Prior knowledge:
- The protein is mainly α.
- The protein has 2 domains: 24-96, no CATH class; 98-217, no CATH class.
- The protein has helices at 3-22, 30-43, 74-86, 91-94, 96-117, 120-131, 146-160, 166-182, 188-199, 211-217, and strands at 49-50, 65-66.
- A two-stranded antiparallel ribbon has the order 1-2.
- The longest helix is centred in the middle third of the chain and has 22 residues, at 96-117.
- The two termini are 32 Å apart.
- Mean pLDDT is 89; it is low at 202-209.
Amino acid sequence: xxxxxxxxxxxxxxxxxxxxxxxxxxxxxxxxxxxxxxxxxxxxxxxxxxxxxxxxxxxxxxxxxxxxxxxxxxxxxxxxxxxxxxxxxxxxxxxxxxxxxxxxxxxxxxxxxxxxxxxxxxxxxxxxxxxxxxxxxxxxxxxxxxxxxxxxxxxxxxxxxxxxxxxxxxxxxxxxxxxxxxxxxxxxxxxxxxxxxxxxxxxxxxxxxxxxxxxxxx
Length: 218
């Protein structure tokens, strides 16, 4: 694999995501709308506050009330970043970070495949499957957690496949933190990170179990 392969995969995915985004004039469903609204609040300098009632699960005492007491904030922070950088508080600007994320995913998928197999044909196939992702094509360009979770998950396994070190262990913990900031269930990845650290310790050289084998059990 070389940079041309990765650039081609990123360009194809960006072109596809941009085309899909052109047919999405609004968030389209509740979760994407919530993260977009949170991004608007942050970009406007109103902080982590919600002047609306999204659902009753967090049982707010009144309006406005603290934001992200049910869903996590990282997706809205990314949406706010696009709006802040462009100076435009609109749907297009909110999606810029997510379009960029969608372009990163295919080359990252190919890199993960190549790190596991050392085969260029399989890596390119994996990258193309990430480009033409079917079901997720409609969700990657909108303000939702899909792209963030895919990014952090792929990076997680890329690091798992590297030689054990203190730096890699810290990176796994950091990624688990980012995944939790994307979705509340991201904290489960911290448990996986701990398993990686334990299993990669050279305690018994005769042990043949790997992290991937244990993950299949889970």
